[in-house]
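Researcher: I'd like a structural prediction for the single chain below. Treat it as a standalone chain; there are no partners to consider.
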Amino acid sequence: MIEDRDYMRQPEYRDPMFSGFRWSWTMVLIAVNLLVFVLMEIEAAYNPEGLVKMYQYCALSNEGLGHGYIWQFISFQFLHAGPMHFFGNMLGLFFLGRIVEHMIGGRRFILLYLMCGIFGGVLQALLGLMFPSVFGLEVVGASAGVFGLLAAWAALEPEGQMLVFFILPVKTKHLAWFSAVVAAFYILVPAERGIAHAAHLGGMFMGWFFIKKILQGDWSKLTGALRPAEKNRPRRPKLEPLEPKTDTDFLQNQVDAILDKISAHGIQSLTAREREILESARKKMTKS
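Model: Treating it as a single chain, here is the predicted structure.
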């Protein structure tokens, strides 16, 4: 029966933020960032020249990329320009990271996080090459990945809520849009120096893209104009309306295909339409 499948059962809810300490990928990232931060503070106090070399080799910069230091697209994500910069990013990583990791799993989470940081760094570097006097700053920090996690959470749960300043509830989709607009504004009107807004916006785009196009596999908006003619396309089962002619047809033709997809690729691979059909089927089974 459909309700006997593991992924149709309601899991016991555990708040990912307050379920106790565990060594998740989020905590590993925070630990690595903390280790690097401590080493940088020691270098700043006892060996300033060593700190300068660390920035030369690991911070994202036009000069470094010109020397072929392509690892800077990853290494810059673990450097920070002071205690406030570090603690602000780690606070965001702790809250957003645990939520997103709980929703998509550890391996997907670490891939998402690093890809957001890399893409944010690429966008910042491209603008730095085109407009070096405006965007050619040395870039450090985890904020590209953190902003990417915000966009990913908004893509996964747009109606979810986050307490801004711990008191003001804001929907994730609204907070993500606000953050993206602010970043885009300061890219077009670069009056605020010292903040890599292009990296923030690039990270957010990758966060949304990773969830909506890679995990959930909804390529329709990107490939609609490039699809082959219908007769040349491989046949795929068509999704019937939510109110099918009979319950038997609905269960056999729709739900089983979706459940097989979950079994093969995970629940995160479902499109919004497929999730809606699955929820409709669950309600029908509950009523019966």
